[in-house]
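Hey L., structure's done. Input below.
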Amino acid sequence: MKRFLLCLVMVLYGCTCVVNANAESFVVGLMNADRPPYFWRDQTGGYRGLFIDVLDELSKETGLHFSYKALPKARIRLYMIVGKIDVEMGIATEWRKKKAEVKNSVYSIPFMDSKEVYVTSSMQGSFDSEQNVPIGDKFCGILGFSKPKGTSEKSRVDFLSEDQLLKMIDKRRCDYTIMPQDIFRYLLRGNTYNVVASDPISIHAMRLRLNRQHEWLLPRINAALLRMKDSGRLAIILDRYK
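Output:
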């Protein structure tokens, strides 16, 4: 009887651990195209990059476990609405304005700022430096991203990654695009694209976007981010990818 009771306790304890592990594990949706320095897949198929390092540090601070699911951006936005994924990393509140997205989203405090720039060909006549704007109306963007103001759907062409965008602009297949300054600078290292970036045209506060069902997690995550900022660990991660 004692052996039976001991086995029963061990089984119940094991079940409890599984439930708790599942309750503390959250799926992060990442685009199925590399976006260095934010994230990319290495030769082993694992993820590396700034976003991953921030989430790894959050895991140490909170005990939460983050796994990653690669999806097209449009599907990430849909899956966040219906609750098939839990977290979208590096999102500004002003980027998710559809009614269902507003209804189903909660956000952490910012963990970094992102400056956006115009990118165009460096050929003479393709950029008005005085007005800080590109010349031409053929805009190229990322599939699933919102279109910037002033662009028409007819003149827009979409690609899967910023690296593809730079190649298309270099070949004069697109007049201009908009991308994070961090990504532009990172991709230019070691490449000889004939492209140029504007001064920043906007600055966005980057946050963790959570499905609203996980709103109870925000105090825990925000407190961890504050500790990471105060200790300098967050600054170390950000500086690592400059």
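The longest strand covers residues 112-121. Confidence is low (pLDDT under 50) at residues 4-23.

-- N.
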